[in-house]
């Protein structure tokens, strides 16, 4: 949930940096999204075996009743995210492509699968390690779990997303950045202390 500027986006991008340049399209909650996640989780487990320490459905598609982009966000924990040789070739063979490398932000990696490239659905696979990514892992899961059990904040977050979706964004990260204040406000209620 880091806020990043255009230079940081360019520096972290693996491959060609393409502007987003279109509206964010939100769909009503789709009851198929958990099944889509389950299929992706099975493919990741088959590709990685014991290297996959934990796999979680995150993002808006993981919250029943929440409108979202039809894109499955997945959190994958591996022993060491910086050790790409331990997991990247297997994930690439399973159809994922490394798109983001952020060594300065919890060693975060993001791999994607896109319908435009022949995948069955759009997926963002966020890779972190328990050692280096613990604070962000806790935040991601706390935010998801809070929205699943607190209708008022789920409605508030959806309203924010719908308002922001009316704008055009150069990069999808700009849309994510624009949600940060509301996410932090909700996390203030979700995280103890």
TrEMBL record:
Keywords, comma-separated and alphabetical: Coenzyme A biosynthesis
Membrane-spanning parts: none
Signal sequence coordinates: none
Pfam families: GrpB (PF04229)
Domain of life of the organism encoding this protein: Bacteria
Name used for this protein in its record: GrpB family protein
Organism per entry: Nocardia sputorum
